[in-house]
Amino acid sequence: MGNVEPQVATTGGAQPQASPSTDGFQLVIDALKLNGIDTIFGLPGIPITDLTRRAQADGLRVLSFRHEQNAGYAASIAGFLTQKPGICLTVSAPGFLNGLNALAHATVNCFPMILISGSSEREIVDLQQGDYEEMDQLAVARPVAKAAFRVLHAEDIGVGIARAIRAAVSGRPGGVYLDLPAKLFAQSIDAAAGKGSLIKVVDPAPRQIPAPEAVKRALDLLKGAKKPLVILGKGAAYAQADADIQSLIEKTGIPYLPMSMAKGLLPDTHAQCASAARSFVLPEADVVMLIGARLNWLLSHGKGKTWGGKSPKAWGGQTFIQVDISPQEADSNVRIDAPVVGDIGSCVAALLAGIDRGWAKPPAEWLGAIAERKTKNVAKMAETLAKDPVPMNFHSALNVVRDIVKANPDAMFVNEGANALDFTRSIVDMYKPRKRIDVGTWGIMGVGMGYCVAAAVVTRQQVIAVEGDSAFGFSGMEVETLCRYKLPVCVVIMNNNGVYKGTDVNPSGGPDVAPTVFVKGARYDKIMEAFGGVGVHATTPAELRKAMEDALRSRKPTLINAVIDETAGTESGRITSLNPSAKKK
After folding, report:
1. What is the 3-state secondary structure (H, E, C) of 505-553?
2. If you count Cβ atoms within 10 Å of the first and of the last residue's Cβ in the chain, which end, N or C, has fewer?
3. What kind and span of H or E run contains 148?
4. Is residue 146 part of a domain?
């Protein structure tokens, strides 16, 4: 007997409706939006092109760059400015590798950032079968990221993004990698189940309260100091505890030094700012309190002649207090006598609460000695800035920038280069917190245009960038991005025809120019004009001043080619000591 088909009763009514579904694309978008992330920096391509289209259609702002590295730098500094992880989105393998530099930069500088990259399928990668842009991206990212995760199933997207957010912003912030294989995006699951799988991260960066005994130990050391000094790092700027930091400085009366990205936490013109006497206060101080600053190379590791040590590795005898969220940072180079571990805001608040009415200000002899050296050095700098050489040099050009920034204290200020960085840091004063953003701990070249995009988008303020001509070359094509999004960015290029200076010659006598020399008389302003922006060729301080004032008034993307003396500048800027050939001279 043959098989008998089962009889199915029919009523002629409507067939059951299938449950609505969602896919990996939508779940990524929904997870980001659920956590308050509204901007993505990236570059479209396989396999994330449709993700950028759908994200934009769903209300996210998607800023597309010409190179993933610049998108990554934008995401990293957006994280610093907002305390939320900046999102960089890249394609697989080569695109991922382009973003990796920025991921490492974010980790080293403690900027919260998430690099999200599409990738090849695991089963092909693991067997090394030669997939399109095949690479084990998770393994490559791990050494340079604070954390790294891979999501293989659509129902885990919410968990993956939640873990990435927590890792990026909790404790000491940093760069996080999130690997999303191509076929994840097309996976379809029930819409209700998908919505239920998403996680809104609660308190991703919880406060870490310092131990009362640690606070007391630090205050006791400060009370007994004869020559106290506070050093403010970019961690203090990131904390956004500006009012309490200012109160702590002013109530204690202790002079302070801001590291470059902490400039403006208190105005650089503040009476207690010791920047103009830096080379005096570091070796002379007896008790130094670091707030969100690390004793790394930027502070000569707390040792050597900078600190009064008799040899490069010798400790100068200072007593150190270190306020930092990471207990592992203490004793990294020299002994820390009073570590205060916790988030900067909580630590500063606790220190402030411990200052009683009987607190004695630092001895008059110490404050007077600092004031004397400040007065002398400020007068010397003013004399230098007042000169009007032909052609312009760094000082005469930056004197104009100094005036423009003073007149526009709300403008964001981006700075990179070698001499262009060093001279600007010491000449241009900042007046408000988190207005100066620069190369940071790595001293890296190429952050400029990515920073400009993020600063304009995140703060909605005018952006002024001072770039060395060499530094600009790393990201110069992004002027098209500035023009495409009509961002109010004024870029000033200090053009001296080369790396450090434009006067080197080929020692062999051959036809090639020296490795440090660029095309003479290059017209960088024409690059901006090519994309519809404003380009200006400035050869005098008056021309530079007018061009900058016009740019700020119009809020149009502007590039000013500021021609300076090609003999201006020194090799390696202020870190010549790190140049092996310089040590032999």
Report:
1. CCCCCCCCCCCCECCCCCCCHHHHHHCCCEEEEECCHHHHHHHHHHHHH
2. N
3. strand 147-150
4. yes
Q: Please check whether residues 240 and 135 belong to one and the same domain.
A: no
Q: 119: which 2 tokens? A: 């990738």
Amino acid making up residue 331: D
Which residues sit opposite 61 in a β-bridge? Answer: 39
Residue 163 is which amino acid?
R
CATH (domain of 84) = 3.40.50.970
Amino acid at 119: S
Of 534, 429, 435, the closest CA to residue 490 belongs to 534
| Residue after which a domain boundary falls, among 197, 231, 249 | 197
Mapped onto helix, strand or coil, the DSSP state of residue 205 is coil
pLDDT single digits (tens) 533-579: 999 999 999 999 999 999 999 999 999 999 999 999 887 656 666 66
First to last CA, the chain: 103
Where helices occur in 261-338 by DSSP H, the ranges are 278-284
Question: What proportion of the chain, given as a percentage, has pLDDT over 70?
Answer: 95
Residue with tokens 């909605």: 460
* 8 has pLDDT over 70: no
234 is a domain residue: yes
Could you give the CA distance from residue 524 to residue 448 in angstroms, rounded to a whole number?
15
Spatial strand order of the sheet with 463-468 comes to 436-438, 412-416, 463-468, 489-495, 558-563, 534-538
Q: How far apart are CA 557 and CA 561, in angstroms?
A: 13
Structure confidence by residue, pLDDT tens digits, 494-539: 999 999 999 999 999 999 999 999 999 999 999 999 999 999 999 9
429 domain-assigned: yes
Q: What's the number of domains the chain is made of?
A: 3
- Do 158 and 30 share a structural domain? yes
pLDDT value, residue 132: 85
User: What average pLDDT is seen over the chain?
Assistant: 94
Q: Same domain, yes or no, for 58 and 129?
A: yes
Q: Residues 242-255: pLDDT tens digits? A: 999 999 999 999 99
CB-side neighbour CA atoms (13 Å) of 172: 21
Q: Rounded to the nearest 10 degrees, how much is the dihedral formed by the CA atoms of 45, 48, 53, 55?
A: -140
Regarding beta strands 287-291 and 338-341, do their DSSP bridges make them parallel or antiparallel, or are they unpaired? Answer: unpaired
The parent domain of residue 519 ranges over 387-504+512-571
DSSP-derived pairing of the beta strands 188-190 and 21-23: antiparallel
Q: Which of 347, 371, 395 is the last residue of a domain?
A: 371
Q: Whole-angstrom Cα distance, residue 540 to residue 563?
A: 8
Q: State residue 453's pLDDT score.
A: 98
CA dihedral 300, 301, 305, 307 (to 10 degrees): 110
Q: Which residue has the higher pLDDT, 10 or 309?
A: 309
Q: Which two tokens stand for residue 265?
A: 């936490």
Has residue 521 been placed in a domain? Answer: yes
Q: Cα–Cα distance between 238 and 116 in angstroms, integer?
A: 23
- Amino acid making up residue 76: S
